[in-house]
Amino acid sequence: MTTAAPTPRFTHPAARGACPFAPPPAYQQAQQEEPISRVSLWDGTPSWFLTRYDDIKTVLADPRFSSDANRPGFPFISAGARQLSAGQTTFIRMDDPEHAHQRRMLTGEFMIKKVEALRPEIQRIADRLLDDMTAGRTEADLVRDFALPLPSLVICLLLGVPYEDHAFFQECSRVLLRRDSPPEDVDAAQKRLADYLVALTETKRTAPDDGILSRLAERGELTTEEIGAMGRLLLIAGHETTANMTALSVLALLRNPAQLDHLRAHPESVPGAVEELLRYLTIVHSGLTRVATEDVEVGGVTIRAGEGVICMVSTANRDAAHFPGGDELDLTRDARRHLAFGFGPHQCLGQPLARLELQIALDTVLRRLPGLRLAVPFEDVPFRGEMLVYGLHELPVTW
Question: Which of 196, 209, 226, 270 has its CA 20 to 30 A from that of 22?
Answer without folding.
Answer: 270
